[in-house]
Amino acid sequence: MKIRLLAVGQRMPAWVEAGYTEYAKRLPHDFRLELDEIAPGSRLKSADIRRTVAQEGEQMLSRLKGGERVVALDVKGKPWSTEQLAQQADAWRMEGRDVALLVGGPDGLASACLDKAEQRWSLSPLTLPHPLVRVLLAEQLYRAWTLLQGHPYHR
């Protein structure tokens, strides 16, 4: 199974790149995590933010591949414990489909992306900076994989 993280934002700080890469590289080939960055739209004072978010959403949706399970990261989504994430990941793997995780920019995901999602997942009721979400996702996916393997990482 391949998990693609489609995330709005480019040119992340070094700590984000390092954190994401550290956990992504720990995952095996049959549970690999790939990052697909979406260029953020203009957020100048004169920009129409709703239009910007909609354009980011269009870009994101155009990159989806047929057959992928689409999971939107959304504060109003369902929160999963690490154990529940491991169960979800195992179910995704057993389903035989790749997974696309959608992460919006500073103004969230386009409604078209939320509508396309088969699942909505909330990492936290807290507002998290979208670069940090990349690191959290990679670490939690690695932790879920270790749980499925019976590895002691999750102590």
Question: TL;DR of this structure?
Answer:
The protein is α/β, with parallel strands linked by helices. The chain is 43% helix and 22% strand. Strands 2-1-4-3-5 form a five-stranded parallel sheet.
List keywords for this structure.
155 residues; alpha/beta; Alpha/beta knot; five-stranded parallel β-sheet; 5 strands; globular; cytoplasm; EC 2.1.1.177; S-adenosyl-L-methionine; transferase
Description:
- Its EC number is 2.1.1.177.
- Specifically methylates the pseudouridine at position 1915 (m3Psi1915) in 23S rRNA.
- By secondary structure, the chain is α/β, with parallel strands linked by helices.
- The protein has a single domain, classed as Alpha/beta knot.
- It is built from 5 helices and 5 strands.
- It has a 5-stranded parallel sheet with strand order 2-1-4-3-5.
- Helix 1 runs parallel beside helix 5 and helix 3 packs across helix 5.
- It is globular.
- The two termini are 25 Å apart.
- 31% of the residues are buried.
Distance between the termini: 25 Å
H/E order of the elements?
EHEHEHEHEH
Helix segment tally: 5
Radius of gyration: 15 Å
Based on the structure, what is the oligomeric state of the protein chains?
single chain
Helix content: 40-55%
- Identify low-pLDDT runs: none
User: What number is the mean pLDDT?
Assistant: 93
CATH superfamily: SPOUT methyltransferase, trefoil knot domain
Pfam family, one: SPOUT_MTase
EC number: 2.1.1.177
InterPro entries: Alpha/beta_knot_MTases (IPR029028), RlmH-like (IPR003742), tRNA_m1G_MTases_N (IPR029026)
Binding site for S-adenosyl-L-methionine: 73, 104, 123-128
